[in-house]
Amino acid sequence: MMDGIRRVGVVGAGRMGCGIAQVAAQAQCDVVLV
Predict the structure, then answer these.
(1) Domain boundaries, position 12
(2) Residue 1: its pLDDT value, please?
(3) How far apart are CA 13 and CA 2, in angstroms?
(4) 20 to 30 Å CA-CA from 12: which of 1, 24, 30, 31?
């Protein structure tokens, strides 16, 4: 599903932002959380 996406940026480190960052990291993506 995420064959082309390897790097993810998430703006906001609240509940939703942290959840999105966690799922992306578990999918082996590079994550930047701001």
Answers:
(1) 1-34
(2) 56
(3) 22
(4) 1
| Residue 5, CA distances (Å) to 14, 15, 31 in order | 23, 23, 11
The structural domain count of the chain equals 1
Tokens 């932002």 -> residue: 17
Residues with Cβ within 8 Å of 21's Cβ and at least 6 positions away in sequence, in order, are: 8, 10, 13, 31, 33
Amino acid (one-letter) located at 8: V
- Residue 3 sits at φ, ψ, to 5 deg, of -65, -35
- Of 3, 9, 1, nearest to 25 by C-alpha is 9
